[in-house]
């Protein structure tokens, strides 16, 4: 497995693979990899000849006052992790490589970006759309793999690829959880021991919501109220949002149907965590 | 030569060409082709095995009150024109093919889009960046050809390709003029006989500016003042802007150096015409 830092090196490698008729997958990450990322890399390896993992803490998707500086990084550990799972290439660019002097372009979206995390993180999805478009141009993958934990991001990237006529397939992969239910996230490392326990309210609320919708509840408000009540019972938790939206458009919905997404962002202390589930009927 | 309307047909054709190892060029146009477009197609044919001409009057780059509806169209004539010049494929999509139901993505840029035409046409370059990105994704050309008549558009597309790490070369081609100097434009058909004569002030101002800069003038204001005076002497002309900018960043400049762009937009009656020249030293 190679680790490269320049766009040119990635292109060269991918062109060699293409000449040999090999298919190429991309797993875009911000590093500090955990089993959630691992599941993406493993699936990508199963479905493609070659797997590129990009590791880039993208400044453009962090707002002022967010955790760009403190976001955890460990390239050495990440490299071993990727190699173990059979990845073929890590692309680990500097911010200067991705955003050269005078950079002033961006890719963005209305509608889907305006709800949920888009409300609390106004520049976030512009950064995500821009960096993913760039990565797609650089790697030209057949398939790119994203986790359903970032459900809104996944919906946005799928819409982006459709809207912009990009010739690749976006594959969404299930949320990977700790044994006690907490959704795996690089940001979990921010949690103190006490906060780590309190953070369980997110997955507990997800479980409760799933139970209620599986039992046939059709009114989103009924489910949301119970989820919110559960979260509010935890003194360390502060809700950013808990909402039910259409799984494609991210627009709020009152009626639960196939594809309805229940999504939440909750602060545990200073750490903002997200979790969600989709209704399938 | 084939004329196709769907993205799928373009992709299929391009994939066949790629399999045969052929290089592919794109000439993006809004149709109603003239010798300006012709020079792009001819150059593209000289430098590539295959040439795709896209003909699409892109609604997204027209503002409210602009000439989207009245913009001239003649696919039959355009097809014959392209075939004559050796083009291999015309891509002529409907707006619905390019902007499917729920379309909400866009590509845009700051800095370069904020000057010149960007001030009088605030949504224009977002439309241009979005449609060109889409066309690049659909055709995946090795090279795309743009006229220097739309100098700001050319600079923006070059910056976009650089910023977004798109793997293609943007080729700028010289302005083609009528015998009397008027820059070729599909919009020239809007002009009455009288307006057609008055429209010569644009190319006359360009000639004057070129003379002064070639003679060694270094102060942009001196050149602009004389150009403006010349245009203002024509009663049918109403200046939108006449400016000197850095040829890469489109930011206004007082000092004339290699690459300085003198650009203008002038209304002749209701028709808005543009022209420009670049200083090379």
From TrEMBL, chains A, B:
Catalytic reaction equation(s): (R)-pantoate + beta-alanine + ATP = (R)-pantothenate + AMP + diphosphate + H(+)
CDD domains: PanC
Compartment(s) where it occurs, according to its Swiss-Prot or TrEMBL record: Cytoplasm
Keyword Aminoacyl-tRNA synthetase part of the UniProt annotation: no
GO CC entries: cytosol
Listed GO biological process terms: pantothenate biosynthetic process
Subunit structure, interactors included: Homodimer.
Xref: HAMAP family: PanC
Misc note: The reaction proceeds by a bi uni uni bi ping pong mechanism.
Protein name per its UniProtKB record: Pantothenate synthetase
Record organism: Eubacterium oxidoreducens
Gene symbol of the encoding locus: panC
